[in-house]
Structures are given as C-alpha cells and as structure tokens.
C-alpha cells in the first residue's frame, strides 16, 4: 500500500506538467498571440516612421541582434520556469567570448577547441550558479548577481582590458556571418537550431518535466522523491551552455571579443522571456513565446536607433517595457489565483 502511494505521488507533479489543462493551454496561446500582435504593430509603426526600417540590410541587422538575445533568452527560459533568475548571462556571455579569443588568438588553438572552450566556460558558470542555489541555498538573485560581477571582472582581467580581434583566425567570423543557407546568416540559423533544441528539452524530455514541476511546486516535487537539487544544477548548467553559445556567436559577429560588452543583455533576455509568456513565479513558459519576445526587443531597440532616439531614452523605453511585462505577468497570476 505504501509503495503504491509513493509511486502515485512521484508521478503527480510530472503528470501535471505533461498534461496541462485546456484552460492553461489556451491562456498560453493567447499570450503568444498578443505578443505576436505586438510584434506586428511595432513593425508597422517603425516602417511608417522610417523608410529605411524594412530595408534588407536593416532586417538582417535585426535578425543578427535577435540571434544573441534569443539564444540567451532560451537558456534563461529554463531557469525562470523553475522560478529562478539568472543575472549573469550578459557578462557571462562576454567572458565566454573573451575565453574563446584567448584560446584562438593568444594560444593559437584549433577553431573547434576555441569554440568548445567558450561554450564550456558558460556551462561551468551555469554549474556554479546551480550549485550555489541548490547546495548553499543562496537565493538565485544573489547567486547570479555575484556571478555577474565575477564574470565582468574576469573578462577584464583575462583580456588585459583590451579587445581581442579574430582577424587572423580562419573561419571564425563565418560562424555568425557566413551563410550555409544563401541569404540567411549563420547566426540566425544557430538561433533557430538552439530554439528547436530548447523546445525539445522543455517539452519532450525528463529535464523539461522536472523544470516545470520544480517551478510549479518544488516542495511537492521533492517530497515525491525527486532530487530537485541535482536537477536544478543541471538546469542552470544547460542554461550556461546557451550563454556560451551566445558568447561565441557575438564574438564571431563582431569579429572580436569586447571585454566591456555584455552589461544590459541580461535585462533584454529576461524581458524577452517574460514578454513571451513565461511567468517569473515559475511553472509556466514557452520557447516559441520567448522567440517572439526576443524579436520584439530587437525590433524595438533597432527602431528607436533608426529614429535617432538618444541612447538614454532607449534605456528608458526598454525599462518601461520590462516594467509593463512584469506587471502583466503579476496581473495574470492574480487573475488565475
């Protein structure tokens, strides 16, 4: 009798994830539809405001910017679904780019080794974040804030406070700006491939089931026999891998590793995740919604720049968007309660 009860309890949180209610499904689709509608409105508004907005060169720039924000946001989606947060992804991305530069330019290692080294750096940072949250029981905000500062400092130290240029590394620039598919920059292709990978992880794997279960009710998931600490470490590590990929992509896009770049990217990525319908309270999220949110952020920032809005006011607008997104999420949660 006891064994049967334990089995049922263990399956309960996972079952809630794999079989969401029709109402929850419809709410998620409504949120995605609203986000997509917002994207269309922004496209129309900026195209009317500037004749250059819909030029192919500008659209290509938007897609390239979305590639970096989107890849960061995919990893962040996994973390936020667990009701966590990762503030280290912006400066962490910079550190991954710098490490890639050191391996390829300073140490003259093969291209694949340098790229894998940059990605592994992101995975290591994610592992440390997950370890601090799960083992040392630090609040995710504090643990990742500390990592943000550490990554920012290490990027400056490792690079010697100087940019690292990849001009002598054959094939590196093509990682982002090449075109395996004619007319489509490789960075955009990487965005779609990582998006598919994140979607499959979140919706088709045990990792995804436990990600939702932990975010919905971590205590109940733990009582059911799931080692939530182990899974949270894995989730943060996977998110770190996405950060590492973003670091390699932005370095290839700029053809350089800029040690002072990265601050602010975490806010854009988190905003993209929330705009896409992922709840800061955890237990709910969508990779497709995150992609739409990333496009909204890229279009908004690009549109403001092409309209010659000053950087200071761009920051104000982005801050307001984040505030509205968080308020909307809070309002949606209160209505569902």
Structural summary, described in words:
With 337 residues, the chain is mostly helical. The chain has a single domain, classed as Orthogonal Bundle (ABC transporter involved in vitamin B12 uptake, BtuC). Helix content is 77%, strand content 1%. The chain is built from 13 helices and two strands, in the order H-H-H-H-H-H-E-H-H-H-H-E-H-H-H. The chain has helices at 2-18, 22-49, 56-81, 89-106, 111-134, 140-159, 174-177, 186-204, 206-223, 228-254, 265-275, 287-306, 311-336, and strands spanning 164-165, 256-257. A two-stranded antiparallel sheet has the order 1-2. Helix 3 (56-81) runs parallel beside helix 8. The longest helix is centred in the first third of the chain and has 28 residues, at 22-49. Residues 1-21 have low confidence and may be disordered.
